[in-house]
Amino acid sequence: MTDSDLEMVKDLVSDSLKNLMVEGKVVVEKDEETIRVNIETSQSGALIGYHGEGLISLQLILNIMVYKKTGSWQRVVVNVGDYRQKREEYLKNLALNVATRVKTTRTVSTLNDLSSFERRIIHLVLSEDPEIEAYSEGEGKDRHLIIKPKAS
Q1: Gyration radius of the chain's alpha carbons
Q2: 110 by DSSP, 3-state: which?
Q3: What number does CATH give the domain 86-149?
Q4: What is the CATH number of domain 3-81?
Q5: Percent helix / strand / coil, the chain, rounded to 5
Q6: Start-end of CATH 3.30.300.20 domains in the chain
Q7: pLDDT tens digit string along 58-107?
Q8: Tens digits of per-residue pLDDT, 3-56?
Q9: Cα separation of 27 and 37, whole Å?
Q10: C-beta separation of 144 from 111 below 8 A
């Protein structure tokens, strides 16, 4: 991806923000396989939405727009402020707390209302614990994460 392509992505995001009537600063960077879009705005809640649903939607739409403009799929990740970092830290702590509770009480725990991205983070954290088993069940919006002690 060229510098002009990155500028095109920045323009797409800026135009989208303008259409959403949200003012913000857009920074676009490229690493080996990902285009990272960072948006700084005082209206972050309007973009992030409930549990990041607005952010996920914006990211999906941007991925499609970039594909339409370039003719090839590029992985575009959108972050507003430091939402993704804060959410990831929260999810890691949640996973560790639930794992401790499950190991202590020897009971099953269920986590609902998580996106696939959020379930993946928790799976990764819990995969390092030999005493815990974590897996997803259900379909679509009803998909949830089951965390239980491994059978001894």
Answers
A1: 18
A2: strand
A3: 3.30.1370.50
A4: 3.30.300.20
A5: 55, 20, 25
A6: 3-81
A7: 999 999 999 999 998 989 999 999 998 999 999 999 999 999 999 999 99
A8: 888 999 999 999 999 999 999 999 999 988 899 999 999 999 999 998 788 999
A9: 6
A10: yes
